[in-house]
Amino acid sequence: MRRTSASLVAGTLVAALAWASSPSTPAVALDPSAGVADLTQDLNQILSDSRLTIARAGVVVKSAESGEELYATDAGKLLIPASNTKLFTSAAAAETLGLDYRFTTSVLSTGRKAGKVLTGDLVLRGTGDPTMLAEDYDALAARVARAGVKVVTGRLVADDSWFDAQRLGNDWAWDDETAYYAAPISALTASPDKDYDAGSVIVAVAAENGKVKVTTTPDTGYLKIVNRATAGSETDVLIERQHGTRTVVITGTVADPYQEWVAVDDPTAYASSLFRESLARHGVKVLGRTTTGAAPKGAKELAAHESMTLGELLVPFMKLSNNIHAEILTKAMGRKAADQGTWAAGLKVTTDFATTNGAQVINMRDGSGLSRRDGFSPGSIVQFLSAVRGKPWFDTWYKSLPIAGESERFVGGTLRSRMAGTPAAGNVHAKTGSLTGVTALSGYVTSADGEPLIFSIMLNQYLSGSPKDIEDKIAVRLAQFSRASASGEPVELRASDPGPAGDLECSWLKPAQC
Predict the structure, then answer these.
(1) DSSP per residue, 447-464
(2) Predicted model pTM
(3) Which positions are annotated as active-site residues?
(4) Which CATH architecture has domain 6-84+363-508?
(5) 405-440 pLDDT, tens digit each
(6) What is the pLDDT of residues 477-502, one digit of tens each?
(7) Which InterPro entries does the annotation name (predicted)?
(8) Any residues with CB less than 8 A from the CB of 280 and at least 6 apart, and which?
């Protein structure tokens, strides 16, 4: 998963060296030097963009070394952070769970084995692993078969009790229910790909011999497919799961191959169906039905699978802004800290960690930022980003942030197509955030003088297309900042085109469109 390039290595070395170690509108210079005065003037000008006239904009810039505030406007205002929320969730997870934390998925038996017959139940127990693929469930089934089990007289029990039964996050929009970036959360789940989009299935269509063929990844009978699409001269197709069901209805016309990531209705049932199908392929017959429940005490382990470490998971989580990883880690923190795999317990862990590390103006409703009731002030974000620099896990966490202008998906992430060819490219390490009417960018940048800076940009309630170019202009100007010189040379950015991804993280749209 982790990819490198010459520019990334060089940038990382420079960044590692650089990072060792009240509201006012319009903002005024907080340092008497000409460089800071020019920076203030330029940022004020960037924020005077007409798209922000009716909007709310909070921006804070601080020196990481001295802690001095170089620029601030609406620093203490509570704004919707979108996926900037993941800064807090990921850091709290690194602190609470540790970078070596792994999820475990295991197969247990509740009865006695006599020859090839297991008298009793077979239990599939999960702890929330979002990286489980169909092939991993198949490997578990193969191990059961290699243990000599051919018949299970009892049931297949899906044990998802590590987390509670609340599947959807607080305040999530009803019309996001079938979207893979709002998939239901469970301690047993499965991903269709190595982006690890847990709780979803890829549904693909293609025109063949005048008809529309439908396939799924993984190949599973869990979904009921109703194919009403027809072959045509253009691809204009809708793939949609019906509310509260396993039924996916496909309508429209298909000319070129097309695919959609669709959230399942019940990730526990989905995962257990994949496992049962794998058992059958390996010659293991389970006579009883599939049900849910906690494994009884004394159940014996037949097979187990461990995930990658949290330190490794941070890369797809943060680079691609994966909502489901955020929510699973939130419940995992609740289980670790309070023996409760709930949103309430996990959010308390994150909130306590955030406030202890300088974030005083916060309101957390979920771990990902999908809730519109999440709120942070840009000042709190900057204080938090400053405080975590001293943590032993900071270097790994810092490298997991998207990097401006780096084209590799697992390097540049949601910033890979932004600020390329500017002083910010390979320099800005920051978390993006996008919802309709909301965009945010918060993180770290090294100035032209080699001074490490921390910044947070939060734009809310605009009615235009996404003004991410304003964020980019500010970040580029910070990369040009010098205390001793006048304004940096203006850099012409690529024209802003929000397109279909304008109000969502680009990696939330599949295939990635940025």
Answers:
(1) -TTS-EEEEEEEEES--S
(2) 0.91
(3) 83, 86, 321
(4) 3-Layer(aba) Sandwich (3.40)
(5) 999 999 999 999 999 999 999 999 999 999 999 999
(6) 999 999 987 655 666 655 444 444 45
(7) Beta-lactam/transpept-like, Peptidase_S13
(8) none
